[in-house]
Amino acid sequence: MAARLSGVSPVLEVPFTADGEIDVDSFAHLAHHVLGTGVGSVLFPAFASEFYKLTDDERETLSAELYRVATDHPAVTVIGSVPDHATRVAVARATRAVEAGAGAVNVLPPYLAGPPAAAVLAHCEAVLAAVAPTPVIIQYAPVQTGSSLDVAAFARLRAAHPNLAAVKVESNPPGRLIAALAALDDPIPAFVGYAGLQMIDAHRRGAVGVQPGCSFVELYLAIWDALEAGDDERAAILHGRLLPWLSYWMQGVELIVAAEKEISVRRGLISTAHCRAPAWRLDAVELAAVDLFCATFSDELGVHP
Fold first, then answer.
1. Which domains does the chain have, with CATH numbers?
2. Is 210 helix (H, G, I), strand (E, B) or coil?
3. pLDDT tens digits for range 53-82
4. Which of 258, 259, 262 has its CA nearest to residue 270?
5. 208-233: per-residue pLDDT in tens?
6. Measuring CA to CA, how many Å separate 7 from each of 13, 20, 109, 192, 258?
7. What proportions of the chain, in percent to the nearest 5, are helix, strand and coil?
8. Burial label, 127 (beta-carbon count in 10 A; 0-12, 13-18, 19+)
């Protein structure tokens, strides 16, 4: 599978039943929808997938289902996420993902208990070497993890491992790091994450794509298409319409996950908005905001309350 690592690359959420079991049928339905929207790739499992609340067996079951669904969407690359902290486990997980059908691998560098920078680099190098020549994206998420990596470290990794295909940048703000990566002698492409809050500035500074959640991916596609077409005014208008909700929801990972699941339920993409505890429970005001979001974007999302 040729990797398409640019444009909109959503993270798939994990549907649960009302009693908290993984809902494989809903996940397959969601995956079919998202992969059919025109995205170039999807990422799973990441923070928006609540990966840290899944057992190993559940992660493997859902990943296998995604690879099965992806056979019906050969133009879309599945990026297998490797958020495991132990290098040995991460290498094994990445290798299995490629063997199962992943066209690329996303590495969340280890951060628990403050590992030294040299150990973090060694971890990334081990995964890069294990799956070469499969493309690898390294996630730079200092807000969530306090990353010890910097531009010089990414440049060294790229020089030693040409399959370092991109960096997912989730710093606040992300633009300067994206520009610095693009300015290297051997430029490293960058995706902007963090729900695309800064995707317009990121595109201006050279980002090749955005990795948001998946419940309203059509809106991100419309914004990105406008940016790529040079229609900055239309992109700014569309993005500006999103910002009131994004700026509130991105106060926390659990908050935006809960909100996006409510949107997915209203769109008929998943069966319940259940999040495994501990989780953010939307109150009446926050639920009303989700309803207003769906009404505001009813034409774009096909939601007609």
1. 7-300 (3.20.20.70)
2. strand
3. 999 999 999 999 999 999 999 999 999 999
4. 262
5. 999 999 999 999 999 999 999 999 99
6. 19, 33, 23, 10, 25
7. 50, 10, 40
8. buried
